[in-house]
Amino acid sequence: MTEREGASAPAPVYEPKVLAKKFRITVEEAAKIIAQYGSDRKSIEKAARRIAA
What we know:
Blueprint: H1 16-23, H2 27-37, H3 41-52
Helix pairs in contact: 1-2, 2-3
């Protein structure tokens, strides 16, 4: 057995196009958010909601 049992893979990082479409923001805004928060999906979505509002 080469993999640990129960280990989960890291969550994939958002693509700017996907984030932009989901929250109805520009691709440029989405790219800036992703660059700022890295792979922290919760923070990315929170920041995108703030811009979209």
